[in-house]
Amino acid sequence: MMLIPILLASIVAAGHCSASVEEVFASHKVVPDVIAQAPNQFLKVTYKQGLVAKEGVELTPTQVKDQPLVEWSAASGDYYTLILTDPDAPSRADPKFREFKHWVVVNIPGNDVARGEVLTAYIGSGPPKGTGLHRYVFLLYKQSSKLDFKEPHVSNKSRRDRPSFKAAKFAETYQLGNPVAGNFYQAQYDDYVPELHKQLSEE
Ligand SMILES: *[C@@H]1O[C@H](CO)[C@@H](O)[C@H](O)[C@H]1NC(C)=O
Prior knowledge:
Helix content: 10-25%
CATH class: Alpha Beta
Strand content: 25-35%
Largest sheet: 7 strands, mixed
Bound molecules: 2-acetamido-2-deoxy-beta-D-glucopyranose
Family: Belongs to the phosphatidylethanolamine-binding protein family.
Radius of gyration: 18 Å
CATH architecture: Alpha-Beta Complex
Number of domains: 1
Distance between the termini: 72 Å
Keywords: Signal
CATH topology: Phosphatidylethanolamine-binding Protein
Shape: globular
InterPro entries: PEBP, PEBP-like_sf, PEBP_euk, Phosphatidylethanolamine-bd_CS
Pfam family, one: PBP
Signal peptide: 1-19
Number of strands: 10
């Protein structure tokens, strides 16, 4: 008679060891600020020196200046879209340019990001001084097939089309459904930010 409650208690305790994507996205309001529904899986995002961008951990702009390794288990023959977006532009308190687009790669065959089509080249975090922590959200969508994306290509030297982006709207336009995986880190101003802003000088 005593066994069942004990068993249940241990199952519940084990479940709490690691938070789900849903819990983490809800507690940091990635849902609903960026997407309406959390994906089921965490995306694995690794920066230089093995720094892992996950579950809202704080990283510095210096640490995330180079494109990370993004990994997921893909079915061969499938195409994916990867997005990195900052809903806290220019700040989480006053997100009037929500979202700032950091990276968009489409038509990724399987999980080979290098072979995808880069619509918007990767740039790291550039949160302006005094704007606090920004959330940087990675979203992975599974495409129905290889698609024709009618979008301008934006280099890593340009801020063109980066502000006032909406990942959810982009996904809707290309009928990508809900993201299948995601993750995010947070960052605030450091000395690398002025350098990044200088880099984004081209039209
Ligand atoms: C910008 O993109 C170019 C071309 O892909 C690349 O060689 C360069 O390293 C990038 N610069 C930065 C700062 O990421």
